[in-house]
Design goal:
There is one protein chain. The longest helix is centred in the first third of the chain and has 16 residues. The strands form two sheets. Strands 1-2-3 form a three-stranded antiparallel sheet. A two-stranded antiparallel ribbon has the order 4-5. The protein has a single domain, classed as hpI Integrase, Chain A, CATH 1.10.443. Helix content is 42%, strand content 7%. By secondary structure, the chain is mostly helical. It has twelve helices and five strands. The radius of gyration is 21 Å and the shape is globular. Helix 2 packs across helix 7, helix 3 runs antiparallel to helix 6 and helix 9 crosses helix 12.
Length: 272
């Protein structure tokens, strides 16, 4: 330290020089929709409750731009969405999740999640998505499947959506490591050279970026993306409401269309 109790100027210059020599940070990459389709295709071919829940949580994180602590069982100071946070609609009427038939739940045209203690959210705020048009990869289908599975085992309302019951009837949880492993396996299968990034570039954190990038590719207004992702770069955004269905109804379908992209590879990705 110098006489002013600050780091000596010579040491400051040395540290700056070191920083310039450091390699650039390797940020997580937004996976394209092909990666999600691969995971959902595997889940559709198995009766494994773990695989089904894993795929649904990946889809949920993509459509709702969720952080890992919001859709997985994590040790972080975050609370995942629970069964009681789900609403399903058939047109305007809201379905009773306790009495509606499985077919009625799966035919829902709109779905929503209610924020409670999740990070960067107004408590009680509701965020919704319409049916994407896809028979598997749709927010309405995903939430309907989770409700059907959990209620069939008598799960209480505070059961996390990232939970499932195994063949022995024991409650299990999807963790961030499970998400990361599934995403990396899908990237390996689809070929990193084609996708433009390596399996190591992908973690559970990338799904939030993937959803945002899909919306951006579909030319959705950046203000709407910030609203859906709860990014508050402008104080005025807190006064806008996501609960208006006309704003959100088309987003899921647009995300499926905009999620087809290939990244420009860096020097670490092998060439043909």
């Amino acid at each position: 330290m110098n006489a002013n109790n600050k780091i000596d100027i010579r040491i400051q210059r040395m540290l700056r020089s070191y920083a310039k020599e450091d390699p650039p940070p390797n940020r997580v990459k937004p996976v394209p929709i092909a990666v999600l389709r691969r995971i959902f295709a595997i889940a559709a071919c198995t009766l494994c409750a773990h695989t089904a829940c894993l795929a649904d949580m990946i889809g949920l994180a993509f459509f709702f731009l969720l952080r890992p602590g919001e859709y997985t069982h994590s040790s972080q100071d975050s609370v995942p969405f629970e069964l009681k946070d789900v609403q399903l609609f058939q047109g305007t009427p809201r379905l009773d999740l306790n009495t509606a038939t499985d077919a009625q739940l799966l035919a829902a045209s709109f779905a929503s999640l209610t924020f409670d203690t999740q990070k960067n959210a107004v408590r009680g705020e509701v965020i919704g998505q319409g049916h994407s048009g896809d028979s598997l990869l749709s927010p309405t289908k995903i939430l309907a499947r989770r409700v059907i599975h959990l209620r069939s085992h008598g799960a209480p309302p505070n059961t996390p959506l990232s939970s499932y019951y195994d063949a022995q009837g024991n409650l299990q949880h999807i963790k961030p490591a499970h998400i990361t492993s599934a995403l990396q396996d899908a990237v390996r299968f689809l070929n990193p050279t084609v996708l433009g990034f390596l399996p190591s570039d992908v973690t559970a954190r990338c799904l939030r970026a993937a959803g945002a990038n899909a919306l951006l590719s579909a030319q959705v207004d950046s203000d709407h993306i910030r609203l859906l992702g709860r990014w508050r770069s402008d104080e005025m955004l807190r006064y806008l409401h996501l609960q208006a269905q006309p704003i959100m109804h088309r987003f899921a379908g647009l995300m499926l269309a905009g999620g087809n992209f290939v990244l420009i590879p860096n020097q670490h990705v092998p060439s043909y």
